[in-house]
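Case study 2.
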Amino acid sequence: MKPKFDLSLYLVTDSSYHEEPEFLRRVEAACRGGVTLVQLREKNRTSREYYELACKVKAITDRYEIPLIIDDRVDIAQACGAAGVHLGAADLPVSVARKILGPDYIIGATAKTVPWALDEKAQGADYLGGGAMFPTATKVTTVLTPVTTLADIIREVQLPVAAIGGLDAENCGVLEGIPVDGIAVVRALMLAEDPEQAARKLRSRAEELRQIKKGE
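Prediction:
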């Protein structure tokens, strides 16, 4: 059975900021503070290194009953027993990943336009990451997505959507009025002075934004 997932506060990791013990400490602190979904994103590790780190992160997310998503690598997701994968434009097509993984894995996809989002839905995506809302300092190529486009994607595609890209507790107000299902963050937790408290604040802001989705 496919795990339930909540996009409210979606941590996308970046281990390049810290040595491994500090990285894992920060992931756990963020989970303790209210993260609802964790994506392990590693662009520059060998398969063995990726797998070994994934197992360590999964041990943390399991303690907090938070699903673990693996960026890009279907094989690593299977090997470590993760809940699913997240796929970008340069990764395996969602339809191929679905054939490999079957119906019981969560598959997320990046989408920056309505046609792109509709295609990902048709291929079997369970949720979408829309953005980037702001320029980012991560090692992935950043293409900004207007807030109006994000709103169009949410309206037309009718899948859960998390906004991503340079978001933090101070600037996520740009999403007010947009019925997002959550916010995805990297540096706002990976570089926070106190990741646990930062996660609590972000979770509160995310819940405020989700009230729009609920019509409250």
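Helices lie at 20-33, 47-63, 74-80, 94-101, 114-123, 147-157, 187-190, 195-214.
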